[in-house]
Specification:
The chain has 1 helix and no strands. By secondary structure, it is an all-alpha fold.
Length: 52
């Protein structure tokens, strides 16, 4: 499958409030208050830049 599209990126403080709230409601996770690495499963290795 091939996808073609555009991506918008924001710094944490720039994320539109409505978009952030919709993401939190859909996923149950608010990356503005809980960093991604905090969501790593127990016993799993967190990778940053492709290095364990």
């Amino acid at each position: 499958m091939l996808f073609d599209g555009d991506v918008l990126t924001y710094r944490t403080q720039e994320v539109p409030a409505a978009a952030a709230e919709a993401f939190r409601a859909k996923t149950g996770w608010d990356p503005r208050t809980e960093p991604r690495l905090a969501r790593v499963l127990p016993g799993a290795a967190a990778r940053r830049s492709g290095v364990a």
